[in-house]
Each structure stands twice: as structure tokens, then as C-alpha cells.
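Internal ticket #5521
Category: modeling
Description: The requester needs a full-assembly model to guide mutagenesis choices. All entity lines are attached below as received. Residue total reported by intake: 313.
Assigned to: D.W.
Attached entities:
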Amino acid sequence: MKTFLRFWYDFIVGDDWTIAAGVVIALAVTALLAHHGMESGWWLLPLAVAVGLSVSVLRATRRSD
Amino acid sequence: MRSTFLFLAAFLACSVEMVEALTIVLAVGVTRGWRSTLLGAGAASLALATIVAALGPALTAIPIDALRLVVGGLLLIFGLQWLRKAILRAGGFKALHDEAAIFEHERQAAAQAGTDVRAGMDWYSFTVAFKGVLLEGLEVAFIVLTFGSTQKNVALAALAAATAFVVILAVGLVVHAPLSRVPENTMKFAVGVMLTTFGIFWGAEGAGVKWPGNDASIIGVLAFVLLLSTGLVAVLRQRHARTAVLSS
């Protein structure tokens, strides 16, 4: 069971769990904004991707320095 | 336009995974014989086809907004992981995938493994080939299902995967060696960019957001993701060069 869960964790979440967490939070905030009538909140997800990917990549390079 | 992207992304993703699976199958087949190896690879392909055939229609029955939100989120997480690895490899901070080295490693492991022949089958060859094809193929099945169901066109995504399967298999049969010249990282980079683009677009749409220009904004999102990724590669290359100078 542990191996099975580990496999799916590695498969979907991968090396950096903060990316997955960031995507879930960004989607939830976007949905919340849209629910409150702000349908023009399309910019939030690209912004979250830019910040999340940059932080994750730069942190990985610091670890391997 | 969406159909072209769908076909291209599924084709590229499947090609990359097929190259990796082919390396394992070739190493085991060349070292221990083809019968059990091909049976293992065939059984895994059948299992993957069953997964796609069973889950495809089930996914298309889910309401489109909920599907786009969940699938968009999953694609975005998945795409960002591919992109992250491809950026680190292109920037020199992660070793490039070396199919020739992997082939040699698998070949040595296959040569040293004991012989377990029951019912006329070499179970080592069967198991390694089955596991290799199934694990590499699961990513393809995931992409085919998510892309296909969100576009209500699982058949087109499956066709792209089948085309890649035939192309890579044909090249493998001709070359009869690991496909080490395939620009694997470039292909993974391209797939990562496409998955991330569709993940952003569908995820936001599923969350209830209206994109300016509707479908046409996919091009804008694609350009944004491409610019961000190439920019990060440039920063990493500079940093890598600086580290190399400092350490020499």
C-alpha cells in the first residue's frame, strides 16, 4: 500500500510538492474571485505559474551549487 | 487550432516515453531473447489500451467545467514538473537523459540476473519489459485521457499516441539500438510548455474565468510560458557558467 501511494505521489506531485500546492491554491483563489463576480481574473494563474516555477527552479540550483 | 495542439502534445509526449520504454525492451531483448520480452511489452500495451478505453468514456461524462478545473489543475502540476526538469537540464543543473548509458545499465543487469524459466517463459525478461512499458506508458495514458476528455476528443489524442508508437517502433526496428540521438530534452521541454499552457487555460476556464479573446488567448498563454521558460534557461546557464568559473 505504501509503495502504491508513493508511486502515485511521485507520478503526480513529483520532485517539488510546493508546485502542486501552489497550483491548488492559485486555482482556488481564481475560482473564489470568479464566484464573487470577478470573471476577469485570468491573470492570476499565469502570475502564480511564473512565481512558482521561478522559485522552484532557482531553489533547485542553489541546492546543487 | 486546439486539435493541432492536442495532436502535437500527445504525439511528442508519447514519442519521449516510447524512446525510454524502447531502450529497456531492446536491452532485455538483445541480452536474454525476444519472445518473453515482446510478450511482456505486448501485455503492458494491452493493459494501457484497456485503461484508456475504460476511463475515456467515463471522463467525458463529467460536466465540462468541473472536468476542466480538475484536469487543468492536474495538467498544470504535471506540465510544470516536466518543464522544471527540462529547464534544469537545459541550464546544466541536471544531467541529460543518456539512453546509451541506460541501455548499457539495463543490459548488464539482464545479463547478471538468474534464469527463471517456467511454462516456456523467461519471467525476468517478461517482468522487466512489462514494468518498463507500463510505467512509461502511464504518463502517455494520463496525457491522452486528460487532453482527449477535456477536448471531447479522446480518439484524436489516442491516434496521436498510436502514431508515435508506430514511428518510434519503426525507427527502433531499423536502428536496432537505443535512440540516443533523439533530442529528448528538447521534446520534453516542448511537451512541458504545451501541458502548462493547456493547464493554465483550462484550469482558469474551469474555475469560471473568461479569457480575453476566448480560444485565441491560448496563443498568448503559449508565448508567455515559452518566454518564461527560455528566460529561466538563460538565467540558469549564466549561473552555471559563473559557478564553473569560480570553482576552476
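Resolution: model delivered.
Comment from assignee: The mean pLDDT of chain B is 84.
Ticket closed.
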